[in-house]
Amino acid sequence: MKKALLLLAALALLLTMQSSVDTAYAHGGSYRGPAGEVPPGQRDPKDPQPPPENPATPTPGPGGGTGSPPPGGPPSGGDGGDTPDAPPPPPNAPDGPGGNNGPGGIATPGGKKRAAPKQMSFENWLFWWAYNKDEILNLKARLKASEARVATGSGPYFLGHGKGGAGAKSTTPGMIKDTIVPALEQVVANKEIHPDIRGGALIALARAEPTKKYLDKFFAIAAKESGEDKVVQESAIIALGILQNKDQEILDYLIGLVENKNYPMRGRCFAMLALGLLQANTPEVYKALEARLDGSEVHLDVPVCALLSIGLIGDEEKVPQLVQWLESGKIGRAKLSDLEKSWVVAALGKIGHPDALEPIIKVLREKGRYAKRSAAIAIGQIAKQTDQDEQLKFCKRLAQFHKNEGDLTSKNYAIIALGRIGGDANASEKVRDAVKSFLKKAYKESSKTTERPFAALAMGLVGFDAVGTTAKPQALKEELAAVIRPDLKARKGDKTALGALAISLGMLKDQGSVDLLKKILEDRGMDKKLRGAAAMALGLIGDKSANPVILKALKEREDRDLRVDTAVAAGLLGNPEAVDELVNVLQDKKASQFVLGSVALAIGQIGDSRAIDAMVAILEPGKTNGTYPDLTRALVAVALGQLSDRRDYRVLYRLSKDINYRASVPALDEILTIL
Predict the structure, then answer these.
(1) What phi, psi does 628 have (nearest 5°)?
(2) Of the residues 198, 370, 394, 648, which has the fewest C-beta atoms closer than 10 A?
(3) Interval 187-213: pLDDT, tens
(4) Residue 310 sits in the same domain as residue 336
């Protein structure tokens, strides 16, 4: 079983990916893997890297983006020289390849080193799934809907509700006020507690109390002269975005951080992205953001985050200006790099106005890989806003690009974009049929390991919301599932890649795959990621007959990833026994920090309040006598924030959905791990 590298940097506690996609946990990051979530902050070593933040510091080697934690060592560069040396990992943190044990090895209890695990290819479908799965799973929405059905006496029983069943329950205002908020306040106030725990608690407070109650506290913590750890400071900054309050005093504070070049670079980037999450559409905000694009900024992170923030704000009046930058390749006198151009395209994609389509199409013919990749994504975002004839035209161009393009990431982004267009609820039957035909052909002709998973996921997207003008949505789903199901049944080739096929069948709600998926989940000799994907697929299909199989897998102690996957699957199916089992795990002091933390986040995702007392006992100082490690407590803080937030999570999801994760920069990596 793989170990992850736990590295406490000046800004993050990051679990890097080796054989699977694991996550960063600082600032309240979420667990992600095929049940799960966020890829690490690294780029392809073959891709050109942005300049180092500190020119005196060498760019890290394979797998590490400049300034982000590489797989074999601490962050390079930092904030241009004002970042202190990274502290050592917290107690009980496992070491990974390189880490503090030297490059390329993992220390064992006996002091010897073994070879570092092989790192996963960036072409793996798990990266895409990590950033985009929230809308597909949407667990909390399911819980709210179930409670509404129970309250009215309508619809099927869900999450254990029904005759005599206590069932799962979402968190009430009283639970938040009386139990969760006091525990979080206590953590934030105690500077002796690990920064990652306090950072998670700050973000949780913003979710639990989305008012101006803690505004002065957030301001004071974020202040550079406060003496707070950077993790805590930056958590306070992004908390301002999570509040979703656009009062002038909040905007002025964030603008001040953005304009203050003496403030740490990543903090300034966090402030820009907080403004983007607030959709702060004011002249003052745009002035501050656009000033970051004049070529005077030392760190590439700054213009990237400024452009993304402009896209997040979503003002259609900015489209002509962005198009002019794209077509000229300049912002003022500053020439755009390929990576910067990719974020101009990304901003246009986030705004989604059809006037940007033709200029973006031209980017597909350019040499720069970053910009081409963003262009493929953006076409899928924008083409949905056009009429049928225009959609067909752009689908044809995407299909041609997919056929002729040599860059594998661009091809995969293009095929997902086609799935987005065909899967739009308002797509015409003619458009959906055209997309369907292309995807079926691409699926059959593609590489089983790298391309076929994306073709399968694209077909899943087409069938996932098959409504609108499609006369027979069920027939459409069955047609697509019939293409995928035989390959999963054969189980030949890369097992992790087959996980995408399982997920796709789940998105298509394919009843014909239920028995097959059960067999895969029950096979303890099967690849763990494939088993996890099978569990998720069963949950998405919603067949209650899978409950016993999922509960049995949930109780397997040797695989933490599978435990989380099955927990989420159980939440999808509404199995109240699963939450009971998860609470038992939280109270098991012999469980590893990874299992405990991951289980806590699974509960947070599901939204079941019955675990609150157990989680608060882990979080609060003195209640557990230091039994629980810092990582676990940090993740418990995050989970309590998830349980407390009764709002629509899409405000955060807007950032990660359809993002070009191959064009990331360290500051953006950090905030993506938070969200």
Answers:
(1) -90, 135
(2) 648
(3) 999 998 999 899 999 999 999 999 999
(4) no
Alpha helices in 574-622 (DSSP H): 576-586, 593-606, 612-619
**Same domain? 359 vs 421:** yes
From 295, 314, 333, give the residue that closes a domain. Answer: 314
Q: What is the mean pLDDT of the chain?
A: 78
Q: Which residues of 393-418 are buried (b: 16+ CB within 10 A; e: fewer)?
A: ebbebbbebbeebeeebbbbbbbbbb
Contacting residues for 612 by C-beta, under 8 A, at least 6 apart: 171, 175, 179, 180, 640, 643
Q: Are residues 218 and 301 in the same domain?
A: yes
The residue with tokens 């998720």 is: 536
pTM higher than 0.85 for the full model? Answer: no
Please give the share of the chain, as a percent, with pLDDT higher than 90.
53
Residues 342, 639: Cα–Cα separation, whole Å: 34
Number of domains into which the chain is organized? 2
Token pair 């995407």: residue: 398
Mean pLDDT of 350-362: 96
- The Cα-based distances of 527 to 1, 512, 535, 559 in angstroms read 11, 22, 13, 11
> Is the domain of 265 the same as that of 303?
yes
Half-sphere exposure of 133 (CA within 13 A, CB side): 29
- Tell me the per-residue pLDDT of 425-458, one tens digit each, with 9 for 90 and over: 888 889 999 999 999 999 999 888 899 999 999 9
* Total residue length of the chain: 675
The secondary structure of the chain in percent helix, strand, coil, rounded to multiples of 5, reads 60, 5, 35
The model's pLDDT over 312-336, given as tens digits with 9 standing for 90+, comes to 999 999 999 999 999 999 998 889 9
Q: Average pLDDT for residues 236-249, to the nearest whole number? A: 94
**320 and 301 within one domain:** no
Q: What is the CA radius of gyration of the chain?
A: 24
Separation CA 325–CA 345 (nearest Å): 10
Kindly indicate the confidence band of residue 582, based on its pLDDT and cuts at 50, 70 and 90. confident
Quote the pLDDT of residue 31.
Answer: 29
Residue 136: burial class (beta carbons within 10 Å; 0-12, 13-18, 19+)? middle
- Tell me if 398 is assigned to some domain: yes
Claim to verify: residue 397 and residue 428 sit in the same structural domain: yes
Residue at a domain's end among 447, 470, 503? 447
Q: What are the residues facing 115 on neighbouring strands? A: 105
Same domain, 334 and 395: yes
Q: Which domain holds residue 278?
A: 211-314
- Identify whether 271 is part of a domain: yes
What 3-state class would DSSP assign to 650? helix
The reply to whether 115 falls in a domain is: no
